[in-house]
Amino acid sequence: MKNLGVTVLLIAGMALTGCLESGGGKEVPSNLNNGDFVTEPGGDDNASQGNGGTTTPTNPDDDGTKTPPQPSAPDGFDINKGEVLTASTNLSLDFYPPFQSAYLKVSENETCANGDWIRYANSMSFVSSKSNQAVPVSVQFRDYDGRMSSCYTRKIFIDQAGPEIVFAKYPSAPVEEGLDVEIVFSVTDAGAGVDTVTCEFAGVSKACLAGQNKVTFPKMAGGDYTFKVSAKDKLGFASEKTISFKVSSLYKQMVQNVKVNAYQKVDILFVIDNSGSMEYEQKSMANRVRNFLDVVKGLDWQIAVTTTDPVHSTLGDGRLVPLYGKTNSYILNSSMADADARYTLGMTLQRPETGSGDEQGIYAAYRAIERSLGAVGSNKNFIRQDSQLAVVVISDEDESANGPKNDPANFIKYVQDSFGGQKAMSFHSIIARPGDKACLSGEGYSAGFRYEQISKLTGGVIGDVCATDYAAQVQGIAEGVRKTLKSFTLTCAPVIDSMRSLLVLKDGQVYNGTRSIQGLNVVFDEMLPAGNYEVYYSCLK
Fold it and tell me: What is the pTM of this model?
């Protein structure tokens, strides 16, 4: 989990000029933009911003510029003459024993455990096995008579990595020409602190901020664009990250063939945040989701649970977790007794372990489907070919990585490609909602930009992780799951305007069932009768 503070600075009205990265000499209408952008502090709350320094403010109003702690007078020993930060794992230890000592022991922990007794010397070199973290070192002294001193402990932060750059909000699909583009990213460094941040677009660079930034590109012209963020920390270590996006002025015509059966099958994957920051919400998770199964009653459902942990060898990386109280069982189904299923789901969601702080709910769902399609381990037989799919993420922090499997559009495309466009899906999120200042200053750790995005794309419900009772929003999610059975998930977002419409044929005849467009989903008011459907629509290229 990253602890982030606040740095506030506004840079506005700076026009940049230059050629687009792949735009060449293309003529652009005078009222459209191919180079200007404006940066400002981003995010909804101090809890979601980075201070770029060596300490983490405990006061939300702290400006994030605390002075590093000063070493106390030598007591037992010091590291690097009292320094609290270094770029090297080779540490210099000077000793100040409380009595004339014959031996000393150095341990890389806070308890003087481990380590070997060696002959006393006034100083020595010590090579740490750790980096990019606060490293504890402890020392104990012993005289010839066997008298031992107390355990003396010091810490030093070994920083050998550049600042961490995370893009929270960015275009994951082509943007229509003439619209604004908004990118939100954060730059933090838990060790030395962020020294400089540079943003580069269309070949021109300018300074950006430590902490969280919001960058707006107004009224973009068509073309392919790349936005790069480079950062250095105060020890000179550098890092950079880029985001590419496309602005399109043309449409493509789409047709999608979908076979609808009368089975009313749905597979539901819960992705639960089991990190340390969710301890408060986890205490009553079983009670918070108690009414979910009441609303999906009557459907042919399967339910499984995984965690947002991307790395754990048994409970992470999309693996289904064991059902509470069930030996070697990982999937609930609608044939179970109501009371048993309700109790088992609630207790399985209420995780006892503390998982990784690098929460990745979209990635976990992607991997869970990959494992199911590959018939790997506990995930075998979870995703049925003739069922619809619903994902429910419960997390107090946004997706923490920017890989291909963390991307909302890539996730939806993967499901579409894997099932030939036949599987309707919805993605629901109980999160710290962007803009919810009360939650973000309380139990919500950071705004769930990407969870909000994928939920909007699939017509999913966006709930409040800080709510004391999830009953109402869980009921809404369960109703959204039922709605998935009345939906088509399209390959791309349809454009409906005076020139473009959406046409549905059933068995070759126009089907006029009342419907609405919710993100990528065409949702009908009534259950669709079995048959072969064709959906004609337009999308941005």
Answer: 0.62
